[in-house]
Amino acid sequence: MAHDRTAIVVGAGIGGLTAAVALRRRRWDATVLERATSLEPVGAGIALAPNAVRALESIGLGDPVLDLAALQGPVGLRRPDGRWLVRGDASMVGPEPTVLLHRSQLVDLLRGALDDGAVRLGVTVTRVDPGGPSERATVRVRARDDSEEAGLAADVVVAADGIDSPVRTALFPGQPGPVYAGATAWRFVTPEPVAVEPAETWGRGSVVGLTPLADGRVYCYLTATLPEGTRFRDEVGELQRRFGHWHPPLRALLGDLDPATLLHHDLRWLKEPLPRYDVGRVALLGDAAHAMTPHLGQGGAQAIEDAVVLAANLRAAPGSAAVIGPALAAYTAARKGRTQGVARMSAQVGAATTWRSPLLVGARDLGMRAVGRWVLPRAARRLDWILDWQPPVA
Ligand SMILES: Cc1cc2nc3c(=O)[nH]c(=O)nc-3n(C[C@H](O)[C@H](O)[C@H](O)COP(=O)(O)OP(=O)(O)OC[C@H]3O[C@@H](n4cnc5c(N)ncnc54)[C@H](O)[C@@H]3O)c2cc1C
């Protein structure tokens, strides 16, 4: 297929790969540059909410994703001793289910939808010049083990370079960057299938989530309220100490845990929002534009939506900046309010999980036990504006 419009995508995360797939479907020649030498995200699952699944459907990946994923079944909230605060099925939180899969499955699917040469690994973007009405954007790149830098030009550059986005720092030098949300998170996927009842368990300043994947392996996430940057010499031992006495099967899961499969990240978000997501011929998307906490499970979903909307806005844009500038401004207009609203709401939801006071936690648990079955569906309705999103039609 001949393409006359070129895009460079910085970063091969979920956002960057989706952008490349969406742009190629719109007849853009999109190349992804990724500094890592392999695309193997270890240790984590990902929940894709209905809005993300719809966005993937719009670029032809809906059925393949559903083939790989587990549909969210029962939902529930427990106390560390195992007592249920509230329990129900997925319909309690919405008419369409969230789906769960291993991140590597999603990355493989996106990568597989691209031509072989469309992703260049081991290539770091060291500088971006956003160009302007009469100049294309340019990037400087350095290949691994190569001291020589090279320059590349494109009609559009998509900055999908993640929460610590070097492109964002360069284009918005006054922006304070991501801030700590007060909690740190560990994630792993069990190597073998394990029988679990899917649920989230809320303790004092800690949360554990257990969700089965389609093949029966279990995605487990654990959070704790700790000072930013806290790390332990024996991370697995620390998790056993903190969570090993919680309800089964946590002791068994943590007892078998291979440290090499464990991810540990502090939860951070872009509290000070960006004024816009486009500068010259550069568009920012995903965590680079609006990093959020994971409490609504929407960071990846919003990156996928961004990618689909960006490509739709660029569908009619020939190489000339007279058209590209307005198309990117329209992208900002479509995405800024929504993504920043989701980020704010996610931070608010996360705040309740960091409560440590026994009094507050006791009241929270009591309230949940008493009226949880009533509260949960109503709380879920507050998410309708996020989950009901529809992709652009044309
Ligand atoms: C604990 C936790 C749980 C989560 N759970 C969910 C969930 O269930 N559902 C959900 O939707 N979201 C979830 N998220 C959020 C989601 O993971 C992120 O929002 C999403 O991965 C962001 O994708 P991205 O493509 O924007 O950035 P990233 O995935 O960070 O990708 C950025 C890429 O850019 C590359 N890069 C950076 N700089 C350069 C450079 N200079 N040159 C070349 N390449 C570069 C990086 O190597 C990286 O590969 C969770 C997040 C956390 C922390």
Automatic annotation (TrEMBL):
Gene Ontology molecular functions: monooxygenase activity
Pfam families registered for this protein in UniProt: FAD_binding_3
UniProt keyword list: Membrane, Monooxygenase, Oxidoreductase, Transmembrane, Transmembrane helix
Keyword Oxidoreductase appears in the UniProt entry: yes
Bilayer-spanning residue ranges: 6-23
Superkingdom in the source lineage: Bacteria
Phylogenetic placement of the source organism: Bacteria, Bacillati, Actinomycetota, Actinomycetes, Micrococcales
Sequence ranges assigned to domain FAD-binding in this UniProt record: 7-344
Provenance organism: Luteimicrobium album
InterPro entries xref list: FAD-bd, FAD-dep_Monooxygenase_BioMet, FAD/NAD-bd_sf
Name recorded for this polypeptide: Monooxygenase
PANTHER family: MONOOXYGENASE, PUTATIVE (AFU_ORTHOLOGUE AFUA_6G14510)-RELATED
